[in-house]
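Hey, resending since the last one bounced:
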Amino acid sequence: MIAKISSILLTGVAVIAVSGTFALREFSHASAQPKAVAEIPVVPVSVETVSPADVRVWSEFSGRLNAVDYTEIRPEVSGRIMDVRFKDGQTVRAGDVLFIIDPRPLEATLAKAEANLASAQTNAGFAQTELDRATMLVKSQAIAQRLYDERANAKRVADAAVQAAEAEVLAAKVDIDHAYVKAPITGRVSRPEITLGNLVQSGPNAPILTSIVSNDGIYADFEVDEQTYLQAVRDGADTEAKEHRIPVQLSVQGDEGRAYKGTLYSFDNRINNTSGTIRARARFDNRDGSLIPGMFVSVKLGSAMKSDALLIPERAVGNDQNKKFVFVVTNDSKAAYREIALGEQVGGKRIVSSGLHPGDRIIVDGLQHVMPDVKVRAIEDAAPSSEKQSQNSKN
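The structure tokens again:
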């Protein structure tokens, strides 16, 4: 029995020994095999090569439209309105009759003034005859010098009476002309504020009959900050003639797709101490009448001169708290973090003030898969050429 147990134990020991030897061989074989290293994939990205471009910097401001000419029509004579000769919103020309104020009382005044003039002229003629007679008699000393002086004075009084009568006639004719209320300028007329049959009074408190705004161009008034005025305008437009050549663009809220082109008309003569801005005025053609005084508009003011600048697409710019950055592809095809400073926006791109140099290749697509020192496969972006053509057409 004891011999049988010993035989079983010896058999178990032999099995364990064999198993250990096999396991040791497998471990040694596994250790001898080289470990497979996980390769980091190369990230495909779109890049754009930064190059200087001749651009004009645009600054945007808010403004209001005002008519080049605007006039309020008020009565210059008193009377009853007999006729209204225009429709609401009609385009009228300078000299067109808009209202007729009853001219009959004024015509009667004119007739009276003309009668007074005729009487004064008759008296002046008689005074002249008396003076001529006195002149002949005084030479022969047939009359006293005093009588001659009286007749000479009477002639002067009669002449003055003629001049006064002529002035009354002229005033009466002017009043009759004012009874036919005319448009002083060409433009679009408002509605009649006082209608047919109403009495109106002339004078300082005369009511407004209607108003007219000119349609020969329109002004856009806006405020320009001092920094823009000094850098973008004054540095390159030191004369009034150069100021008038500064380009301006205008767009209306709700119709941003349509841009109206104009030129700078004037700057004010001083900077406002409170706001730090200077008033500016641009002029635009308004032949189709689509721009109406009082509209709130967006005005873009171009710099006086074009300059070289580095432009990059907005989509290439990343945000790191309050910092702006891009990824640049290095010579060994790795992504490198580069902090930049941005300037104005030009045609959907941004001017780079610092941080980049001509020839740098920046990543414009695939930023979400890029980290510093990651291996990348750069593919030139096809968009820049079309964007540059669009940019050139805008400038």
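Residues 1-37, 384-395 have pLDDT under 50 and may be disordered.

Sorry for the duplicate.
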